[in-house]
Design goal:
Strand content: 15-25%
CATH topology: Rossmann fold
Number of domains: 1
Distance between the termini: 29 Å
CATH architecture: 3-Layer(aba) Sandwich
CATH class: Alpha Beta
Number of strands: 7
Number of helices: 11
Bound molecules: S-adenosylmethionine
Oligomer: single chain
Radius of gyration: 19 Å
């Protein structure tokens, strides 16, 4: 999944979560769900522009915001380390460029690791092994991944379009479905809890919907395709929004799963 690494997120960083507070909303809900004790020192893995970090700071936690993309972390600092709050926040917020597959962090150093919309794009076995190493015994990992929503099957249609266009540049690998509890188990972690949640935002029609899709990880295929496939991909997605979306592309509807895992 190298297409979804730092290079892609450096390119989308300026537009990421600007048009609709999509990731910010899920970040707040993830932190609400975990309800960390004030003062907890938390690693936000794949922190991006700070969706989860902002909610953790609001809950009086101190945060190490780690991400592979320098551009995403630049925006996080710009937003969360404002002039007024810099003195306060530098006591509670630190940032670090890091790769979740090889964490440059000591063993058993965190009670809590949060990760918003990252683990599904990684080599999960490597990332879970590293997370298991860095968590203290009894420590908790909570993470979000995309989930089902009441979208009338539009995301499934979008997924089929993505697969069709991906086949123009490479094979679409078939993965046997592995559940999150199984993945956690393989790294010596124990899956203890999960929930689902959904958001719905008004959006200015199919073109705005497309721009939103291109402002985060979904952009990888657009950038990987040669012309004229790139234009055809856009046309197919716009047509699917006009014809197969429950509100003809005028609502952004998406779901997430939240998972909680502990290090025994
Ligand atoms: C979909 S964004 C989620 C950002 C943020 N957690 C949020 O909820 O908005 C995924 C983030 O993971 C980062 N990322 C991608 N691969 C990574 C890796 N191997 N290690 C650390 N961060 C990575 C990207 O740069 C990006 O900021």
């Amino acid at each position: 999944m190298t297409d979804l690494g730092a290079d892609l997120f450096n390119r989308v960083a300026a537009d990421y979560d600007r048009s609709v507070p999509f990731f910010a909303t899920f970040g707040r809900r993830l932190v609400d769900w975990i309800s960390p004790n004030p003062g907890t020192h938390v690693l936000d893995l794949g922190a991006g522009r700070g969706a989860v970090t902002a909610a953790l700071l609001a809950a009086d936690c101190s945060v190490l915001a780690g991400d592979a993309s320098p551009a995403m972390l630049d925006f996080l600092r710009e937003t969360l380390l404002t002039t007024d709050t810099r003195t306060l926040n530098t006591r509670t917020l630190n940032t670090r460029i890091l790769d979740a597959h090889h964490l440059d962090l000591p063993d058993s150093s965190f009670d809590l690791i949060l990760s918003g919309f990252l683990l599904h794009i990684l080599d999960t076995d490597k990332a879970f092994t590293e997370i298991a190493r860095v968590l203290k015994p009894g420590g908790v990992l909570a993470f979000s991944v995309p989930g089902h929503s009441t979208d009338g099957g539009w995301w499934a249609t979008y997924g089929r379009i993505v697969d069709d266009f991906t086949r123009r540049i490479r094979d679409v690998p078939h993965h046997e479905p592995v559940t999150w509890p199984e993945r956690a188990d393989r790294a010596g972690l124990r899956h203890v809890d999960q929930t689902t949640t959904e958001v719905s935002f008004p959006i200015d029609g199919p073109e705005a919907h497309w721009s939103w899709l291109m402002s985060h990880g979904n952009r990888w295929l657009h950038d990987a395709l040669p012309e004229p496939d790139r234009t055809a991909f856009r046309d197919h997605v716009l047509r699917s929004l006009r014809e197969h979306h429950p509100t003809n592309g005028t609502t952004l509807i998406a779901g997430a799963e939240f998972h909680r895992v502990i290090k025994p």
